[in-house]
């Protein structure tokens, strides 16, 4: 499958975009222009977190992700409601690979409904499709 075909597939679904390494890179670059890349960075951190097998690494990674993205006033705070933030905080006490699932899902929905359509309409994506 060549890259031009891949670029065109990104508009089929948000999943297609997220499955593509170059799609994630292009989307990330776009989000930077909107100053909202923390949502994607959080989503990617959660995906990486789920692959962690060591219990000790799980706990330390969970705390790092929470401090960077989830807690109120976090340096790269994601836009989630107070209830989801609290659920996630409680999940940290017994950190499992699923402790960010709800926050990650909310962030994903936000990107899919908000940022993704703007990405598809963006000049940078339009240029990529013309080249494809």
Automatic annotation (TrEMBL):
Membrane topology field: Lipid-anchor
Coiled coil location: none
A single GO cellular-component term on record: membrane
Annotated Pfam families: RGS (PF00615)
UniProt-listed SMART domains: RGS
BP GO terms, sorted: negative regulation of signal transduction
Molecular function in Gene Ontology: GTPase activator activity
Places the protein is found: Membrane
Matching Gene3D superfamilies: 1.10.196.10, Regulator of G-protein Signalling 4, domain 2
Residue ranges of domain RGS in the record: 13-129
Entry keywords, A to Z: GTPase activation, Lipoprotein, Membrane, Palmitate, Phosphoprotein, Signal transduction inhibitor
Function: Regulates G protein-coupled receptor signaling cascades. Inhibits signal transduction by increasing the GTPase activity of G protein alpha subunits, thereby driving them into their inactive GDP-bound form. Plays an important role in the phototransduction cascade by regulating the lifetime and effective concentration of activated transducin alpha. May regulate extra and intracellular mitogenic signals.
Name assigned to this protein: Regulator of G-protein signaling 16
